[in-house]
Write the structure tokens for this entry.
Amino acid sequence: MRILQIMTAFACKYALFNDTDKRYFLASQIKARTTVGVTILAASAVVTIDPIARRPQENA
């Protein structure tokens, strides 16, 4: 799984994302991600997250 995170409150929310990941994923399973800080998002959002996931093939 790979995640694109775009957030307006980068300085204060980035650590929160790291802490949340640690609650749900083992250290060896933390997803790859790109985080981008911006000044404004649509509809006054603080963060938008676009996940990309791949299901393993049955006979791989």
